[in-house]
Every structure is written in structure tokens, then in C-alpha cells.
Amino acid sequence: MCKDLAMHRVVVLALEGVYPFELSIPVRIFGTAAALDGTPLYEVVTCGLDGGPVTTSADFAITVTHGSEALRTADTLVIPPFTCGTEEIRDWLPDELAEALALLPADARIVSICTASYVLASAGLLDGHAATTHWNEAGNFQQAFPQVRVDANVLFVDSGRILTAAGVAAGIDLCLHLVRRDHGSEIANRVARLCVVPPWREGGQAQYIERPVPEPTAATTAATREWALRELHRPLALAELAGHAGMSVRTFCRRFGEEVGMPPGQWLAQQRVEHARRLLETTDLSVDHVAARAGFGTAASLRQHLAQTLGVSPTAYRQAFRVG
To answer: What is the count of structural domains for the chain?
Structure first.
């Protein structure tokens, strides 16, 4: 957790044809984040390339008071999506936009929401990195930028300095993730409550990809997922999950994948990691006890899963994100 980010400046770059909903996400999420004493934690500035009116994808334009010079002061840059004819983009990067991006401080974080990932890829910022974009654009994006490892199943990808969000509301997930990364889960959760959105969402955007609509009488795995979250402290076999849902294992796995976008085992491991993270952040339980309560069984298993997922040990994670 970055404890020295008081009034961290977030600059939002509104390009011609910007989508209004996504444009509003950073100011809503970061603008809501405050310390326990009410002190704002972020300053959000919206700019255009020239400081003049910016058209949107809707039937109105917006007026911004800052031009691209604002990028010189950015601690984090967020680029919302805009109408840009992505099917034509390969080596696309207008000179004016390239010059604006060159103004960024070397250590500034760069975030794209939805198809704004095309800007980052065109600038070469995603070369050799994993990234995501709207699932409907993933195939075209991968073809246009083969040097980028595209993951169409996740809501966002955090590569450290460069972060990419999937379509539309996934920008909320990514901005909340950054608040959590900067200031811990307590503040991020408060922001989520005030904005009336979930602190995190189960699964990835794979669950939103167009699929054949199930029969109206088809059973759902939702109740079993809710039940499993209450039983994370113990082993949960696939057969037990399927039995709780009243389905065969084969049907349960198929239905689960359709609804969540990942296999049951992967989802369970993800939920155990999330539970362990919350315990490390909010309790003084030993690593052994956290491992037991999260269903990992042993501290060694917890260490392995945290290393694979977050790249840190339980002790290092607690030191970084401990609340209070």
C-alpha cells in the first residue's frame, strides 16, 4: 500500500468521441476516496488535447479547462474509450496524441478503460505485457497487436505501471483496485459502498460474452456459490458442490462456467485468496490460522497461492495492506 499518496493527481484524458459514462468513472471513484479523517486522497483533473470543447459519443459535447499540459503533473493517467474506428487501427497514433503521452512523468501510472487499450498498444506501451479490452474487441485487438498477450476473460489486468480494464463498468473495478492498492481495502470498500457498487465482482468478463440463452427452467449455481463462500474454511470437493446444486458434476461444471466464466476449482481458489487477504488486512491471526480459516490447510499452501496470485508472501502482504 502506498501511504505517501496524499492528493495523488489523477489526470483523465478526454479524446474526441469520448464515452461519457466511462469518462465519469475516475472522478466518481477517486473523487470519493478519503482518509479516515475525511481528507481527500486524490485530485482528479480532466483534460483534452487542446483544452477546448470535446465531442462525446452522445448528443452533447463537454468543456474542459485543461489541455495536454496537465499530463506533465499526472501521477496516474486514465484514458476512457472513445469512438475511434478500432477495426482500422494497427499502427495508429496521431502525432498530437503521441506528443501528449510523451509529456507524462516516467513513473506515472497509465490506465486504459475498455477500447482505450488501443491507444496504449499503438504507443507500444503494452508490448510484451498481458492486457485486456472489451471482449467483443479481443480478437481484433490480438490480431492488430500480436506482441500483446490479450486476456479476454478478466475484468482488468494490473501489470504494475500499466493497467487495462475490460469493457465499460470494468473501469469501476479497476479504479477500485487502484484505491485498494494505494490505501487498503477499508478505504476501497468505503468508496464502493458510497458509490453503491460491489468492492469486487466474482469471475471475469467471460461471464458476459454472448452465449446461447439457457432454458428458462435451467437451474443456477448462484445458491451453491453463496453457500460455498460460507464453507471456505474446509475442503469442498466438486462432487459436494454439484450435489448441493442438485446437478451432476458434468452439468454443474458446464453451468458454472457459463455463469462465472471459469471452472469451479479456479473460482474456489480465487475466493480463498480473497478471504485470506481480508483476514491478513483486518485481523492479527497468525499465518497458520489465516490459512486454516481460508481453507488452504497449511501456511505453505497459502504462501504458494499468494505468491502465484499476488507475487508476495502473507507477511509482506500484511505489512503493506494492514488496516489500522
So the answer is: 2
Instruction: Provide, for the chain, the percentages of residues in helix, strand and coil under a 3-state DSSP scheme, each rounded to the nearest 5.
Output: 45, 15, 40
DSSP state letter for 58: S
Parent domain of 143: 8-194
**Residue 233: pLDDT band with limits 50, 70, 90:** very high
Q: Which residue has the higher pLDDT, 317 or 320?
A: 317
pTM of the complete model: 0.69
Q: At what angle do helices 238-245 and 222-230 cross, to 10 degrees?
A: 130
Confidence of residue 204 (pLDDT cuts 50, 70, 90): low
* Sheet strands (E) in 70-132: 76-79, 109-113, 130-131
Q: Are residues 172 and 32 in the same domain?
A: yes
Same domain assignment for residues 44 and 100: yes
Reported as a pLDDT band with limits 50, 70 and 90, residue 274 is confident
Dist CA 313 CA 315 (whole Å): 5
- Kindly report the CATH number assigned to the domain that includes residue 277: 1.10.10.60
- Is residue 137 within 8 A of residue 164, CB to CB? The reply is no
